[in-house]
C-alpha cells in the first residue's frame, strides 16, 4: 500500500515537471536574438565595409603620391643629365639659367630652330613638309633674324619662305597670320606673275623677296620654337 502511494506521487511530479517544460516553438523563440542584436550586427557589417573602402582609397592615394614623387625625381635627373650633356658649360651648371635645344640637323638661333631643305618642291609641298614636322615655313620679324637667314642661305640661290598672297592685288601675309613688313626687306614683284591666283615669295641672296608662282619648285626653310631645358 505504501509502495503504491509513492509511485502515484512520482507520476504526479513527473507530469507536473513535463507540463512546465517549454515546447519546441517556445525554445525556438527563446533562442532568437532580440531586435537590437540584429541592428548592432548590421551596423557592424556596414562599418566594416566602409572601413575597407576607406583603406582602399587611402592606399590608392598613397600610391599615386609616391608614383608622382618618383616621376618628378626621375624628370629632374633627366633634365640635369640633358643640361650637362647638351648645353654649353655656362648653362649646364647654372640652376637659374636655361639653354635651348633643336632637333638633330636643325640650326639654333636665339630661341628658334631652322632647317634648310636639300631638295626642291612647290610652295604647298614645302608648307606641308614643315607642318608634318611641327614647324612652319620661315617667318621673319626682325633684322637680327634676317641677318642670320642671309648667313645660312648664302650658298643657296633662292628658297621658299612663308610669305604668300591670294592675288597680285591682295596683301602679303606670313603663314602665322601676320602681315609683311617692307622695312625688313624689299619685295620684287615680277610683272610676269601678276595674274589671278595665289602668289608666293622666295628669298634671294640679294636680301630681297621675289614674287613667283606657287607651283614653281625651290628649296625651303622650316622654322620652329626651340625646346628650353
Features:
single chain, 229 residues, alpha+beta, Mannose-Binding Protein A, Chain A, nine-stranded mixed sheet, two-stranded antiparallel ribbon, 11 strands, 20% strand, disordered N terminus, membrane, C-type lectin domain-containing protein
Task: Give the secondary structure arrangement, pairings included.
Layout: H1 2-20, H2 24-31, H3 35-86, H4 89-92, E1 100-101, E2 107-109, E3 112-116, H5 123-132, E4 136-137, H6 143-152, E5 158-165, E6 173-174, E7 186-188, E8 199-204, E9 208-213, E10 219-225, E11 227-228
Parallel strand pairs: 5-10, 7-9
Antiparallel strand pairs: 1-11, 2-3, 3-10, 4-10, 5-6, 5-8, 8-9
Protein name: C-type lectin domain-containing protein
GO biological process, one term: regulation of natural killer cell mediated cytotoxicity
GO molecular function: signaling receptor activity
Ranges with pLDDT <50 over ≥5 residues? Answer: 1-8
Query: What would CATH call the architecture of the domain at 101-228?
Result: Roll
**Amount of helix:** 40-55%
| SSE string | HHHHEEEHEHEEEEEEE
Tally of DSSP β-strands: 11
